[in-house]
Design goal:
The complex is a heterodimer of chains A (487) and B (612). Chain A is mostly helical. Chain A is 69% helix and 1% strand. The chains are: A mainly alpha (487), B alpha+beta (612).
Chain lengths: 487, 612
């Protein structure tokens, strides 16, 4: 029985996924040829150019896929932690073996080819997390249950980010949040993530906008207005705490008045003054709320304190933690800086490339933006430009829809697993692909900041292609064995 | 999974994926379908329109002699990026005969983005321009030593003869108003600035071609776009055949040298201008190329005003030459007949003196021959007073108006509008209004405007109008607007005079007698049957202007001539010999009177006139 099942691996393997995989890889290869095409080029399989090299990588990836399918599925389970340990060692060693490529220390040269271990780390981390969370006695009940999975993800992510200086590759591990969410992590975590990003953008975008009277950042101003509004509300209601509220509102006006007066002789930083006012008044409101048992007042105080703290933190992260090149990418994206020759150049040229494709595109190998190298990184991170320019709206739409079906198919595969560990792994795979698609295409379309991560199967590069192939074919192998699991 | 309470979350995750793709599709729709600007931006990025300049049309004289052609000039360009080590700057400077300092300065200019906005290290930049073949000969041979350096060919105007500068005009860089007016031009283009170059600009310039090329991000050319589908070949300009006879033109300029003046010759039957000379002039070669603006400024500042085309723009009272028209109008309007006699008391005549001694009274033919002032005053007076003065001077003023119309029918007092001469003045035949303004309606009589009878006073004509007037008399009643393009289409501009044909005989006879017995007798050539009229025009600013009009042969006129020499004295002494030799040259192909030619050609009447 068992022999016949493993002998019939081709019968259980998910052919629709393989079909979509082949479609994406082939179309990606055509576009790499288009992007790196020059006029004296005649052959698509000439090994001196990138399309030719990619052809070799594709052949390698197909071979790797076949090998991965032929290995007994139990081997993966057995080897997971060993592989994880080896992977950590390799990641740690990489910065010492690597040479600097545009500031990144993540490439190891092996003769004529260079490999990026971080691309393979995704698969192994996913396997390790899946194995840990799929244990019989593991249940995700409280946040404590997530400590180990977070550590499994966080350690390689930090190594990649700090030692190898590859922020983009490290960010990919954020995709695991979706996996945890599916396994029972509170939905609020996702919402908080969304809210935090939104607040971050708000405070960065409008933090630098000068406000009248120098009332500090928008967040602080909002908090202050909130406090004054609440105070007026209570005053009008002729509540017992009316006097306290009058003091609250009055002191804002008073302190500002003093500040303005002092400002005649000495320059006063209203930024810090407003923060001070909001903090003091919040505390005052909290005390009043507690004393008079007006608890909503307490919550308002806590909320405004949190807001002030968060906006200050955002500011700190933005100005101190982020690298200058990362900062300027965000500024360009948020429209705070115009820099069409510098940081905005890629995004602007990408926009021109895609936009000029119009409905049907300029035709294969006829894209002037990409062929004449106006778009940098056109065959790697910005490969989607070539699709947009040469195949137009129709082609771009086709690619996006093919990706969507591919990811939905992975979700489908995940859901049909009987083995919880395989399900977690499948979700990890789906989430990683979704993350790459979102960040990469979002960057090319100019709706997300420039973060250099590849578009799976499209971007030129052996490591990323092989990494994604490994991720996918391990899943296909595990999926093909789903019938062997007893319920 | 059994009892999986989070089962529904698969839909949330699927929903996120669908949501992301949906947002991106909307963004793509906006970028690729709605936003129209990116197409042009992509084209601006990638496409270079290389203009192919057509060769400008050539100019020939009426006998097919080449007058204006194109000479190749050279530009030295360099691609900075290709100037690697081993580039011998000293040797390069030696090839172009420039100093090291000049070299450094030019390189600095090229690299200065404020001066050279299109600077790129990857594209050819102009290092030196407007070089002659001999300037680049050495460099051409040693070009292989200097990677990145190229020699580009362009064209400039060149001229076979140092002649007819005013007529031919010149070519210069277009200005802002040209750019605004005509979308054909782009900054840095050349167009005809004056003369025929300007009149026939559209014909001469041809049609620019364009080659649409693709360039990469560094500005390197990567081949033609869409296999040259959008390319257009240049269409060369059409050649121009002029009515000028270059030999006649050369003679006229030779005879005028050292003097300020002009000479115009017209073929009466066709209105074709055979020669149109104005002195001082310049060598057309000096308004070409890199010296153009410098030389133009020198010409502009010259007190003798060489840039003015005196043949068509200078205005003079016609003096005695006007007596020919006066005779014809008086005959036509019935004031006199060929046999009408008026007495002349010589220099004692009133109110206008006669300047010659001759028998008295005289008939019309002899009055013309002797240029008898009193005769024409009397004729003019009788014409204007024919109907008396009438109420409020109305009859007199009406007569004056009729006289004026007849005079203007000779092409006087207005510009020739149906011709290809750009620079023209209209001259002036005073209107009744003008005199009304000066004297009041009833305040002027024939005696008030007596100077008009002998071509003095308020009448102003240009030498071109004088020549045309001579042609009109030669034609006995019509003229064809004088023109320079030997193209039949110009012949249709025929203008009839308001003078009947029979009146011309006696005037022509009188003009013939001028050359036989009268003021022009010293310079007549018997075999050529010349007719003419001299004029000596009083000039409040200095010596009299010498004027002559004439045509020949009398019985079948082939050429009509007008000559004006400023501040020269008697028309018979200076203008007549020039016209006479021009007629001889045109009719016989040579000037036999070598001594006369030498004497006139070498006399300098105005020391300020420069020879270019």
């Amino acid at each position: 029985m068992r022999a016949s099942r493993s002998g019939n691996i081709w019968q259980y393997v998910d052919w629709p996924t393989i079909g979509m995989f082949l479609g994406l890889v082939f179309f990606g290869w055509l576009n790499i040829y288009g992007a790196s095409y020059t006029f004296d080029q005649t052959s698509i399989v000439d090994f001196s150019n990138r399309a030719g090299k990619q052809f070799a990588w594709i052949m390698g990836s197909l071979g790797m896929g076949i090998v991965l399918l032929l290995i007994d599925y139990k081997t993966y389970d057995v080897l997971t932690y060993i592989a994880y340990g080896l992977m950590l060692l390799l990641l740690l060693a990489t910065p010492f073996l690597a040479h600097d490529i545009k500031g990144s220390m993540s490439w190891i040269s092996l003769g004529p080819v260079s490999l990026q271990p971080a691309e393979f780390a995704k698969c192994i981390v996913a396997l390790a997390v899946a194995k840990y969370m799929g244990q019989y006695d593991y249940k995700l009940r409280t946040w404590r249950d997530l400590i180990v999975p977070f550590a499994l993800i966080g350690v390689p992510a930090l190594i990649i980010m700090i030692l190898q200086k590859e922020t983009g590759s490290a960010l990919v591990f954020a995709a695991f949040l979706l996996v945890f969410y599916r396994q029972g992590m509170s939905g609020y975590v996702l919402w908080c993530g969304v809210a935090a990003v939104a607040l971050f953008i708000l405070s960065i975008r409008f933090g630098a906008v000068p406000l009248p009277l120098g009332t500090g950042s928008v967040g602080v101003l909002c908090c202050m207005l909130l406090l004054i509004g609440i105070a007026i509300y209570f005053i009008c209601k002729e509540h017992p705490i009316r006097w306290q509220m009058l003091i609250l509102a009055g002191s804002v006006v008073l302190i500002y008045g003093i500040g303005l007066l002092v400002n005649i002789w000495w320059t006063v930083s209203f930024d810090w003054l407003s923060i001070g006012i909001v903090v003091l008044l919040s505390l005052y409101a909290a005390v009043v709320g507690l004393y008079f048992r007006r608890y909503p007042l307490l919550w308002v105080a806590v909320f405004s304190l949190f807001c002030v703290g968060y906006t200050q933190a955002c500011d700190f992260v933005f100005t101190r933690v982020l690298q200058p090149h990362q900062r300027i990418r965000i500024e360009v994206l948020l429209g705070m800086k115009e820099d069409p020759a510098g940081a905005g150049y890629n995004v602007n040229q990408a926009r021109i490339a895609i936009g000029s494709g119009r409905f049907l595109g300029k035709g294969y190998l006829n894209g002037t933006q990409t062929k004449l190298q106006f778009v940098p990184e056109q065959d790697t991170d910005f490969i989607f430009c070539t699709v947009g320019e040469e195949w137009g709206f129709v082609g771009s739409l086709g690619v996006l829809i093919l990706y969507l079906f591919f990811i939905l198919r992975l979700v489908e595969i995940a859901e049909r697993q009987r083995n919880i560990s395989t399900q977690i792994y499948a979700y990890a795979v789906a989430s990683i692909f979704l993350f790459h698609l979102t960040i990469n295409v979002g960057m090319v379309l100019g709706v997300l900041p420039v973060i250099g991560i590849p578009l799976p199967f499209f971007s030129y590069g052996g490591s990323s292609l092989w990494g994604f192939t490994m991720l996918l074919f391990v899943l296909l192998r595990l999926d093909a064995a789903r019938m062997e699991q007893l319920r | 999974m059994i009892n999986d309470r989070y089962y529904r979350r698969r839909y949330v995750i699927s929903g996120i994926a669908i949501g992301v793709v949906l947002v991106y599709v909307i963004r793509l729709f906006f970028l690729q379908i709605i936003d129209q600007s990116t197409k042009d931006q992509a084209d601006n990025n990638a496409l270079v329109k290389q203009i192919i300049y057509p060769s400008r049309g050539l100019m020939y004289d009426r006998n097919g002699e080449l007058l204006v052609f194109n000479q190749p000039i050279y530009e030295v360009t360099m691609v900075m990026r290709e100037m690697k080590s081993g580039w011998d700057t000293a040797a390069f400077c030696k090839c172009l005969q420039i100093s090291r300092a000049e070299f450094d300065e030019r390189i600095a200019d090229i690299k200065d983005r404020r001066k050279n906005r299109g600077y790129s290290r990857w594209t050819p930049q102009v290092f030196m321009s407007q070089l002659k073949k001999e300037d680049i000969a050495t460099l051409q041979e040693e070009l292989f030593l200097f990677p990145g350096v190229q020699i580009q060919k362009r064209t400039l105007r060149d001229y076979t003869y140092n002649a007819a500068a005013h007529v031919l005009g010149s070519v210069g860089e277009v200005n802002q108003s040209d750019l605004d007016r005509d979308a054909y031009y782009t900054r840095g283009d050349y167009s005809g600035r004056d003369g025929l170059e300007r009149t026939y600009e559209k014909q001469l310039r041809g049609e620019k071609g364009v080659e649409v090329l693709m360039r990469d991000v560094r500005g390197r050319i990567q081949g033609s776009y869409q296999d040259g589908e959008l390319d257009r070949t240049a269409v060369a300009g059409t050649d121009l055949y002029l009515t000028l006879d270059i030999q006649l033109q050369l003679l006229a300029e030779e005879l005028l040298s050292g003097k300020i003046g002009s000479a115009v010759a017209i073929e009466p039957k066709t209105g074709e201008i055979l020669a149109l000379a104005s002195n001082p002039a310049w060598n057309p070669k000096v308004l070409v190329g890199k010296e153009r603006s410098k030389n133009y400024n020198t010409l502009l500042k010259d007190p003798t005003k060489p840039l003015m085309n005196r043949a068509t723009q200078a205005m003079y009272p016609p003096g005695s030459t006007f007596k020919t028209i006066q005779s014809l109008v008086c005959l036509e309007q019935g004031a006199i007949t060929p046999n009408t006699l008026y007495p002349c008391s010589g220099p004692g005549s009133t109110p206008i003196k006669c300047t010659h001694h001759h028998g008295s009274p005289v008939a019309l033919d002899r009055a013309i021959e002797q240029s008898c002032n009193p005769y024409f005053w009397c004729a003019f007076r009788d014409l204007l007073q024919k109907d008396g003065y009438g109420k409020d001077n109305a009859d007199f003023r009406h007569r004056y108006e009729l006289w004026r119309e007849a005079v203007m029918s000779f092409g006087l007092g207005q510009k020739f509008t149906d011709t290809d001469l750009n620079e023209q003045s209209g001259g002036s035949i005073p209107s009744t209004k003008l005199f009304d303004k000066f004297y009041g309606k009833t305040g002027w009589k024939a005696i008030t405007i007596r100077s008009l009878s002998i071509g003095q006073g308020e009448i102003l004509v240009t030498p071109l109008q004088l020549a045309n007037q001579a042609a009109a008399i030669a034609n006995e009643g019509y003229y064809i607007s004088p023109h320079l393009n030997k193209n039949d289409s110009m012949r249709i501009h025929r203008h009839n005079l308001s003078i009947k044909k029979q009146h011309f005989e006696v005037v022509k006879e009188g003009m013939h007698r001028v050359m036989v017995y009268g003021t022009g007798r010293h310079y007549a050539v018997d075999t050529l049957h010349m007719a003419g009229k001299t004029g000596t025009v009083q000039n409040p600013h200095g010596r009299d202007h010498a004027i002559f009009i004439g045509f020949a042969p009398v019985e079948d006129p082939q050429i009509a001539v007008a000559v004006v020499v400023e501040n020269a004295g008697f028309g018979a002494t200076w203008a007549c010999p020039i016209a006479s030799m021009m007629i001889e040259q045109y009719l016989t192909g040579q000037v036999k009177r070598k001594d006369l030619r030498k004497r006139i050609g070498e006399s300098v009447l105005n020391a300020g006139v420069k020879k270019w």
